[in-house]
Write a structure and sequence with these properties.
nine-stranded antiparallel β-sheet; alpha+beta; Lipocalin; disordered N terminus; globular
C-alpha cells in the first residue's frame, strides 16, 4: 500500500523541466521580429539554469526563464536598466514580446520564441569575428 501511495504522489508531483539545449556560453542575436528583419542590435544569453539576460537596443535586461513540456517557455519577470536612447519604442516592444513568450523551438543556428498571439522572435547564434 505504501508503494502505491508513493507512486501516486510521484506521478502527481510537477516535474522540473530541463532547459532546452542552449549553450550557456553562447550569445544569440535577434535577427527577426514578427516576420521582418530586426533593425538594430539585441542579444540574449542564458547565463545559468533558469536565467535569461541580454541587451536590447538601449538597455540590458535580465530575469527568470522557465521551461515546460513540448517547447513551452516563459520569461519574467524581466528587469532592465533605464537609460534613455532613440530606440526606446523598439525596446519596449521587444521587452513586451519577451514577457508574452509561450514557446521555444530550437533551430540549427539558434531558436525561435513565439508568443500566444503568434508573434515570433528569431535568435541566431552570434558568430565570432
Amino acid at each position: 500500500m505504501k508503494h502505491l501511495i508513493f507512486l501516486a504522489l510521484l506521478a502527481a508531483a510537477p516535474m522540473a523541466q530541463a532547459q532546452p539545449a542552449v549553450d550557456e556560453n553562447a550569445e544569440f542575436l535577434l535577427t527577426e521580429m514578427d516576420g521582418a528583419p530586426y533593425e538594430g542590435r539585441s542579444t540574449m544569453v542564458f547565463p545559468a539554469e533558469g536565467r535569461v539576460a541580454g541587451q536590447g537596443p538601449c538597455n540590458r535586461f535580465m530575469g527568470r526563464a522557465e521551461w515546460g513540456e513540448d517547447g513551452a517557455a516563459s520569461f519574467g519577470p524581466l528587469a532592465s536598466t533605464m537609460m534613455a536612447c532613440p530606440d526606446l519604442d523598439r525596446e519596449k516592444a521587444l521587452l513586451h514580446a519577451l514577457g508574452e513568450v509561450t514557446r521555444i523551438e530550437m533551430t540549427d543556428d539558434g531558436f525561435v520564441l513565439t508568443t500566444a498571439a503568434g508573434d515570433a522572435l528569431r535568435y541566431s547564434r552570434e558568430s565570432a569575428d
